[in-house]
TrEMBL record:
GO BP annotation list: bioluminescence
Pfam families: LuxE
InterPro entries: ANL_N_sf, LuxE
Name of this chain's protein: Acyl-protein synthetase, LuxE
Organism per entry: Methanospirillum hungatei JF-1 (strain ATCC 27890 / DSM 864 / NBRC 100397 / JF-1)
Residue intervals of the Acyl-protein synthetase LuxE domain: 17-366
Length: 372
């Protein structure tokens, strides 16, 4: 089994607090860790080929912005594992549209441990130190070990680490999801105002729960609840459902206060890191990560307020190259170390997915020449 040489450094990162690092402190702390991780990642022939073709030596990297990024689409085409095959215990598959090729993210025990620790720290920051009742707005089979390990599965399992009891609100009827009346009744019997937390994918909540609640005139009283939801905004935007209207419906049908309906940004390729809304509606970066917004045309870092592609950097992955991933999502930096909520570091806003986004030419850069 591979030993993580940076384990003590990754453990120390949380002593600073989840959102206590300024951007200067983040740069100084994360850069040496990521450089060491890159040295280890060069065991992968595709990563090694990539670094050779862009003429980059890890020793020459002087800032986090200089770390060569990998488009997330490369996980659909290449094996980016950076540990021996025997160390891989799970393959996480992204949730793609029917017919699309999905990403494959190899996970070893070290990476899973890092991801779980990160999620626990982020959840504790928003929910407090006590374990709470966890309401999953999905069906229980999503967590069945016999099923494929998907992004939805990873989300449920990761957030369930904080639970003292789990209730699955939905069930499967054939190929469809619907509300489980027994689970609904169990939730109704909870004491009003009891602290609970909920998790679900935005599109599932909107397309399954809200119509059912409307049809049956159901209004829960989860005034002590906190909902973490993400994904599926493109589908909602196609039917003209915005963030405020979604939140209003959650407040009306679930009884959750608007300020505790937390849209989060996250991705399968960076499991372990979620970016929930703060009280001001912005997203903050935990100590183990960094966000860079890159100009869509030049791919150079954007300034404050400029729209660009979101790059997510992380020190959590040990079993694959996830230190710098360029997404197909756009966002903009709102400010640096000055959010009224009090959290330090950069705070940003997710805008949308780039239509038919494709970083051209990267596949050729990754391919090994095989003696040519």
């Amino acid at each position: 089994m591979t030993v993580n040489p940076n384990d003590h450094l990754i453990s120390l990162i949380w002593k600073y607090g989840v959102y206590d690092l300024t951007e200067i402190e983040r740069e100084n702390i994360l850069l040496p860790i990521i450089k060491e991780q890159i040295r280890n990642a060069l065991i992968n022939p595709h990563i090694r080929s990539y670094y050779e073709k862009v003429s980059m030596n890890p020793e020459d990297i002087s800032s986090l912005a200089d770390v060569p990024w990998v488009p997330v689409t490369m996980f659909k085409e290449f094996d980016l594992a950076t540990v021996p095959a025997d160390d891989i215990v799970k393959i996480l598959r992204s949730s793609g549209t029917t017919g699309q090729q999905t990403s494959k993210i190899p996970l070893d025990k070290i990476t899973i441990q890092n991801q779980n620790r990160s999620l626990s720290k982020i959840l504790a920051h928003y929910l407090g130190p006590k374990r709470l009742i966890f309401i999953v707005i999905d069906h229980p089979e999503i967590n069945d070990p016999a099923h494929e390990f998907s992004a939805r599965t990873a989300g449920v399992r990761g957030l369930s680490l904080y639970a003292r009891k789990t209730i699955y609100l939905l069930k499967k009827e054939g190929d469809y999801l619907t509300v489980n009346p027994e689970a609904l009744e169990e939730i109704r019997q909870l004491d009003r105002g009891i602290p609970v937390y909920l998790f679900g994918f935005t599109w599932i909540i909107w397309s399954v729960c809200i119509p059912y609640f409307k049809k049956h005139d159901i209004h829960l009283h989860l005034s002590g609840g906190t909902l973490f939801h993400g994904g599926g905004w493109k589908n909602l935007q196609n039917i003209a459902v915005g963030k405020d209207f979604f939140t209003m419906n959650i407040r009306d049908f679930f009884g959750i206060p608007s300020y505790r309906v937390l849209d989060f940004y996250g991705m399968a390729e960076q499991t372990g890191i979620i970016f929930p809304d703060c009280e001001c509606g912005y997203k903050h970066v935990p100590a183990c990560a960094k966000i860079i917004i890159r100009n869509i045309q030049t791919l150079k870092p954007c300034g404050e307020g400029e729209r660009g592609l979101i790059e997510v950097m992380s020190i959590l992955p040990n079993s694959y190259y996830g230190q710098a991933l360029l997404t197909e999502d756009t966002g903009r930096i709102i400010g640096w170390d000055g959010c009224p909520c009090g959290r330090r570091g950069v705070f940003f806003e997710f805008l949308n997915r780039v239509e038919r986004a494709e970083i051209r030419g990267c596949g050729d850069t990754f391919r090994v020449d095989h003696g040519r």
